[in-house]
Each structure stands twice: as C-alpha cells, then as structure tokens.
Amino acid sequence: VATGADAEQPVATLPPAAHHVPSLPVPFGLTGTNAFQQHRTPPVIHSITKMQKWSLEQLESHAKELHDGGYQLPQAVAILLADARRKEEKRQAKRIANRKSAC
What we know:
The protein is mainly α. The protein has helices spanning 5-8, 34-38, 48-51, 56-68, 75-102, and strands at 10-13, 44-47. The protein has a two-stranded antiparallel sheet with strand order 1-2. The chain starts with a helix and ends with a helix.
C-alpha cells in the first residue's frame, strides 16, 4: 500500500468505451467509424487512494482493461493488485483451515 507522496499521485486508467477522443491521429489503414474504436484511447486518471479501496475483482478488471488497451500497468497498481491477491489467498487458506479444524 502506497504512503506519503506516492499515495496522492494519480494513476492512468482507461476511460469508459463510450468516450472517444476525435483529435487522435488515425493509424495508417484505418478509416471510417471504426477507426477510433480500433485505436487505443488515452487513459483517465484515478487517484491511487481511491484505488486502495477497490476490491480484488475491480483491480483485476482494471489491469485487464489497461493490458487490452496496450498500456503498461503502473507500478502502484501492480503493487495494489499483488497485495489484494495475497490477502485473498490468506483469506481462502484461513477458511480452509477453519473448516478442517471444525470437523
């Protein structure tokens, strides 16, 4: 979990699919209405402090959207995702241990 100056730095994220930026250059060979749908759109900025409250599913979905959009996963988001996965694994292990001890 990021603290200090890292916690306040915005993180790049993808906008909803409905938002297209008409000023983007169209890649060679793409024309018509699908030109902007096939070209990646610039990321929207989310604060890392907001993302710290996201669930594992939200973080995984966000990471997939960034990857599918051709963007690199920011280090702060990668750390949050790894931490959320670790916590979920610990939760699952604890549930299993509790079930075994209850028998």
